[in-house]
Amino acid sequence: MRGLIEGLESPHPIGAQLPGIYADDDFTQRFCSAFDALLAPIFATLDSLPAYLDPALAPEDFLDWIASWVGLEVDESWTVARRRELVSSAVDLHRWRGTRRGLTEHVRLVTGGQVEITDSGGVSWSRRPQTRLPGSDRLALHVRVRVPDPSTVDVRRLDALVAEAKPAHLPHTVEVLPAR
């Protein structure tokens, strides 16, 4: 939450911009200085706006707001570094959404673990028609995550993330195991 910052001076004091007749008026200068104290944090914020929009530099509370702008849900229990990395990767995550690569990266960023994904799909190319299709007729997606301490991963939240990021028609399972 932004607010008044003790001792922050305005780069554009109002009292100095008034006509000369008010320059020596103590009441007017004190009155204007109250507005200067109110406006100084606004000027400071606007002057450093690019830093607010950069996930690597943004204040922690602003970082969570940026995450909502790019369609990401963050957990307050995650470290600030993990949240910064997730927000910085938002464009790539959306670009690869619904693919094995995108799901692997999203789960890795959220859990910090090693991610293994197995699925029933496949892709092939053939010059002959009626060639057998790759993959399995039984649709399935299995996400296995290996982390040092499995109790640190909220499996329900991870399951919801996988459900949201995977292709809608594909049933899935999630497994969290200790790292090898």
How are the SSEs ordered, and which strands pair?
Blueprint: H1 26-47, H2 49-53, H3 60-69, H4 80-88, H5 90-95, H6 100-111, E1 114-119, E2 141-147, H7 155-165, E3 172-178
In brief:
42% of the residues lie in helices and 11% in strands. The chain has helices at 26-47, 49-53, 60-69, 80-88, 90-95, 100-111, 155-165, and strands at 114-119, 141-147, 172-178.
Record field, number of beta strands: 3
Percent range for β-strand residues? 5-15%
Q: Estimate the helix proportion, in percent.
A: 40-55%
Element order: H for helix, E for strand: HHHHHHEEHE
Helical/strand content category: alpha+beta
CATH class of the largest domain: Alpha Beta
Mean pLDDT: 89
For the record, give the distance between the C-alpha atoms at the N and C termini, rounded to a whole number. 42 Å
Low-pLDDT runs of 5+ residues are none
CATH architecture of the largest domain: 2-Layer Sandwich
* Total domain count: 3
Categorize the overall geometry.
elongated
- Rg over C-alpha atoms, rounded to the nearest angstrom: 26 Å
Number of contiguous helices: 7
What is the strand arrangement across the widest sheet?
1-2-3
Q: Within the CATH hierarchy, at the fold level, what is the topology of the largest domain?
A: GMP Synthetase, Chain A, domain 3
Largest sheet: 3 strands, mixed
